[in-house]
Amino acid sequence: MAWWKRGKSESVAETVAAAERAAGMPLIRLEGVSRVFKGDANGAEEETCALDNVTLDIERGQYVSVSGPSGCGKSTFLSVLALLDSPTSGRYYFNGRRVDQLSAGEKARVRNVDVGLIFQSFNLIGDMTVYENIEYPLTLRGVAGDERRARVEAALARVGLTARAKQRPGSLSGGHQQLVAIARAIAGRPPIVLADEPTGNLDSKSGEAVMQMLDELHAGGATICLATHNPDYIARTERKVHLFDGRVVDHLPA
Length: 254
Ligand code: ADP
Description:
Blueprint: H1 3-24, E1 28-38, E2 47-58, E3 63-67, H2 74-81, E4 89-94, E5 97-98, H3 104-114, E6 115-119, H4 130-140, H5 145-158, H6 174-188, E7 192-196, H7 204-219, E8 223-227, H8 231-236, E9 239-244, E10 247-252
Helix pairs in contact: 4-5, 4-6, 5-6, 6-7
Bound molecules: adenosine-5'-diphosphate.
């Protein structure tokens, strides 16, 4: 077969194979994933096993909480899922594709398209407006202008912050800033939302507003993975993963 035909049919075959894998596999599959840090923040030599041989599937549409005492590995777990950090050993499949060995650029692409990140510290850009913060990741992805506008406006309306579109994040309350971070995640329409203690810096009323948005996203079909200490919030999730010393010690369905 001529090389150009062979190349084409192989790439079609690869695409079909990837789609078949994705159809048969959970959204997230971790196989024996460990993350060992060499040295601690004080420069000591000792190793810390932040994740210890974690094997876990997360199905599409599941609402999962990740809990456990401080230092048990929750943030590391979410960072690995978000492709912000890489396992030291083990395999990570996202949507049927092995992703732990991708290059930094490829990981960034997967993260930008497929992962909505909501962190305790909001991670908003201070010298952009609320509107621009929500729009920016869509611009990076090459979403066309009209589509961007429609998505940003819909996301702002969804979190009730349309009137704040032109403000800078620093002029908003913590609760509203977190809702902007959620609007940014909503506008990206990612298959999974990863939330790391998203209510950690908020009063209980603002925290409840954030949790309601997560509930609604889940009801709309999104897969959500929420790291939290709060027993009331854990109780709202349909699957509860407990970590201790980097190991999954319990994972209960609803
Ligand atoms: P949690 O989010 O549950 O509080 P983390 O994932 O932040 O837990 O941390 C798990 C363990 O890994 C802790 O012992 C922590 O000190 C250690 N750790 C996390 N990040 C680093 C790092 N960059 N360097 C060294 N140790 C780290």
